[in-house]
Design goal:
By secondary structure, this protein is mainly beta. Helices cover 12% and strands 48% of the residues.
């Protein structure tokens, strides 16, 4: 039984990584304006999140974000979560540039064990974010419990990004 489980998990990992590894250039990035796959290094997931024959929840932030002319900030990345039966799961993100920190949207996650993309956007003015170096703190969080739902943090990621 354990051998079948490991073989099935290996097949899933290969299926999830192979399209991403071949999607872009040698560094794993697409050549489009919003590169995806920054969580790839030499064609492999930076952290496979595969423990004791099982995948674990994981979260990655793309290396680039955007700032539009109307001050809309867009951040993105990928995630994997396994189970949302205890309550809804969300991907939240916070952008830090200089001494400024702002929450940038939230995305409802699909927890089916597959790798999914997330994109969060928000209009941020007075003062607006500018192109250049910044930091993103992203969280994969589940709300659960009866009455007032309480957050349960499934995965977090802090990453340096370039705003364009």
């Amino acid at each position: 039984m354990r051998v079948r489980l490991v073989l099935a998990a290996s097949a899933l990992l290969t299926a999830a990584v192979a399209p991403l590894a071949h999607a872009g250039g040698a560094d794993g990035h697409h050549t489009a304006d919003r590169p995806t796959g920054s969580h790839l290094r030499d064609g492999h997931l930076r952290d496979s999140h595969f423990t004791d024959g099982h995948f674990t929840d994981s979260l990655f932030v793309d290396a680039y974000g955007t700032v539009a002319d109307d001050s809309t900030v867009t951040l993105s990345g990928t995630y994997r979560c396994l189970d949302d039966s205890a309550g809804p799961v969300f991907v939240s993100s916070t952008l830090v540039q200089g001494d400024r920190s702002t929450g940038i949207g939230g995305t409802r996650a699909v927890c089916d064990g597959h790798l999914h993309t997330w994109t969060n956007s928000s209009v941020v003015k007075d003062p607006a974010y500018r192109p250049g170096a910044a930091r993103v703190e992203a969280t994969l969080m589940q709300l659960s419990g009866t009455g007032l739902p309480l957050p349960r943090f499934l995965a977090t990621e802090k990453a340096d990004v370039e705003l364009r």
